[in-house]
Amino acid sequence: MPTTAPRVIEPNIAREPLLSTKLHRPRPRSRLVSRSHLISRLQQGMEGALTLVSAPVGFGKTTLLAQWLAESGMPVAWLSLESDDNEPIRFFSYVLASLQTLYPHLGTTARVLLETSPGVALERVLALLINDILERVTDPFALVLDDYHVIETETIHGGVAFLLEHLPPQMHLVMATRADPPLPLMRLRARGQLTELRAADLRFDLDEAREFLHTVMRLDLPTEALAALEQRTEGWIAGLQLAALSLSGRSDVAAFLRAFTGSHRFILDYLTEEVFSRQPREVQSFLLATSILERLSGPLCDAVTGQPESQSRLAALEQANFFVVPLDDERHWYRYHHLFAEMLRTRLQQSDPSLIPHLHARASHWHEQQRLFAEAVQHAFAAADIERAADLIGRIDVNSWAGLGMEVQRMLGWLARLPESFVCTRPLLCVIHAIALMFTNRLEEAEARLQMAERCLDGQPPSEQTVFLRGHIAATRGVMARFSGDLARSVAQAQQALVLLPHPERTPGPISRLNVAQAFLADGDVTAPQERLALEMVTVLKTSENQSMTMRSLTNLAQLQAVQGRLRQAAATFEQAVQVAPRQEDMQVIAGSLIYFFGLADVLREWNELDQAEQLLEQGMEMVEGGLTVEGHVLMLGYTTLARLYLARGQYPQALAALDTFTHLAGARHLAPSLMASASAWRAHMELMQGNLLAAKGWAEHCGLTVTGRSQYQNERAYLTLLRIAIVEGRENPSASRWQEISHLLERRLRDAEAKARGRSVLELLLLEALAWAAQHERNAAFSALARALSLAEPQGYVRLFVDEGTPMRDLLRQALVRGITPHYVATLLAAFDEPVEEAEVRSPSPVGALIEPLTKREQEVLQLLAEGASNREIAQRLIVSTGTVKKYVYNICGKLGVQSRTQAIARARSLHLL
């Protein structure tokens, strides 16, 4: 790997969709001059890294390569380059697409990372491709880059040089170019890795010139005329072709040859003029009018010229060797030879410049009718019709480009071509600009555009369009708030959008409905109504063709199930989300995939399947590091899961470093303060796990919260950390009032978690409650809380939730094993502590008829009152004690009876004849 800084792909405009005609391997013409000696050299060159076919225009480079491919049968990926390909994202996307014409799944991950991650380090993309080739491809193949001389971008040259330096042995690179590229040719030459064919190799000798003129051009010349022509063209194939076209039908060959002098450039100018001028006027008009097109088809040329039968005219031009190149096997699409097209455009500009905008306008309308809006926009700009370009931009469905790197950059490029005064007076353009800015992490600029859109709407009379735009603004703000991690604001904005949008089933309605379905991430409510809403979104979106939104709905449901504590169902739903993509390699291109990588990794981490979790985290982190726009809460999920993975492996410095990285990113991306606070709480938690009570207490003093304060779901992590700190302090310095504060906070948090069905929170709180009782030496209450936690956790396979509590939890589980509380599950947990359990130690719970420990007289009184249906408060009033004391008695009773609830306690007591 190079030691220099990695080249970064700048967010320049790139075209989408990719044009398959650029990937079409040219077929050799039926009449060709045999060049077996050159084909042999090309075949021998496959043993090296690079074959360079470098010569001026018109030396038959492409034709020779087409002949080689036809005769050798070599598997080849082909890419015809244009000047527009100087955009790095576009160039390497086409390279990857060309490789996929040979191997459809090759480089998919690299291509997705490239196209969805503006700012990605190019070496990262190419490394993924190289590794993929090494893993997937066994037979030799070649990648041909035709017309590489049009590439001038240093970043692209650097990427190609990197590819050559690390080229897999199965792969060979072929370049056809008019000038030597700025690549390490000397080094390749010294290593014997370079094969070169240059102008001196490619030019026709006398025999080849005779064969070309006779066989290909069907022209018979006297020997002396042939020799003179070959000498003056120096074997330049294009010159011979142009001369043959000019000589066709002439009787004054000698006069023509006398005038045929000068350098290649002047010969080209002269013969092009000769060829063009000799065509009928209608052909000249057709050539000039269609020269504005990059690609030609019959219907498109009909629309541009206003004349019918363009398809047959294109076929006739090709048959006459008239610089028309077919782009597909069916001969539906063509292009002009580049130099010929340049000559035509120059002539058009000189002869009738006023016609050019009209021709582009016709092309724009035709592409619009075919719903090819990108091409329609390009021609509208070429026609200098800014109004039309703006209208067309507004008609492009947001779902077709939002979030995709290449498309977002193209949209930004278009908007940059519009005058600022033009954009700021059109609210729809402001909203579109805001969305594009949002997907490049420029949230402040995006908000400024939304405010500009609102100013445009102020004072306008109410209409369906103005209401829609206000709904669109609210929906966009909802997505922006989600990106920043402000989930409460995201939900509020989404709800406002749905009220305003006249057709909430259309864009951007679905994303707003999904944002509303994510309300549980803000308030922690995962009860039945919220679950029904999440399920409804899955059902609705599964019938659509929007893969991105479908995956989002599934990952949202999986997140909700994980909050409910239903790990197994969450994992199954995450796996359903994978099936949305046609290939697993495409996961990274679909919005919501990052939640899959991080969310499923967190489930696997909890199951103690750390290696599998790490693999998913690595895939997700590659996307983050590649510059992908990431929602704030998803970013936090990824880094906290990574930190907890390190913690599980005892790698404390790495765990803290992961949290510090998140904090740095959160600051750089201006994420919501609540996320920063949660990250700080996690850091204090992990300091405490390392025994650094001082650091944890330092956080507690500055977090602004106390155990007696009012807690909400968004600061639940902070309160859980405060509870842990308080329990550790309580072990060292017991205080009745302190334990009472802890008990009250635990009770409040448990009540809230149970009411909102947050099973995962309930489990963690029960473990803390068990640890708190154990620290006070209230063993029965501790085992009662622990037994309840174990009964809830076992069906879902929780492991790390217990193990990460460290030695106090290990000791408690050891004693639970002795008491026979869920012995097989406890044995599994102890094994995760590296505490092997002998089979003889695993015994069933105490049989009916025996108590773990006899009830005291006061406990018998409480049990009797429980059987009578008295509440804790009523029991406290009758026994003249506090409700906290009653709760303690209830815990002791449940622990001694080996049950988890008062209902079970009553039933068990009756079976033991205690009532």
Write a structural description.
There is one protein chain. The protein has 915 residues and is mainly alpha-helical. It is elongated and about 130 Å long.
Fold topology:
Blueprint: H1 36-44, E1 50-54, H2 61-72, E2 76-80, H3 88-100, H4 108-116, H5 122-136, E3 141-146, H6 154-165, E4 171-177, H7 185-190, E5 194-198, H8 199-202, H9 206-216, H10 223-233, H11 237-247, H12 253-259, H13 264-277, H14 281-290, E6 296-297, H15 298-305, H16 310-319, E7 324-326, E8 333-336, H17 338-351, H18 355-369, H19 373-382, H20 386-395, H21 405-417, H22 420-423, H23 427-438, H24 443-457, H25 464-484, H26 487-500, H27 509-517, H28 520-523, H29 528-542, H30 547-563, H31 567-578, H32 593-606, H33 610-625, H34 632-648, H35 652-668, H36 673-689, H37 693-702, H38 716-732, H39 736-755, H40 759-775, H41 779-793, H42 800-803, H43 807-819, H44 823-832, H45 857-867, H46 872-879, H47 883-897, H48 902-911
Parallel strand pairs: 1-4, 1-5, 2-3, 3-4
Antiparallel strand pairs: 6-8, 7-8
Q: How many helices does DSSP assign?
A: 48
Mean pLDDT rating: 85
Known CATH architecture of the domain at 20-200: 3-Layer(aba) Sandwich
CATH class designation of the domain at 20-200 = Alpha Beta
CATH fold title of the domain at 20-200: Rossmann fold
In terms of quaternary structure, what is this?
Answer: single chain
Q: Based on CA inertia axes, which overall geometry fits?
A: elongated
Low-confidence stretches: 1-5, 10-15
Question: In order across it, which strands form the biggest sheet?
Answer: 2-3-4-1-5
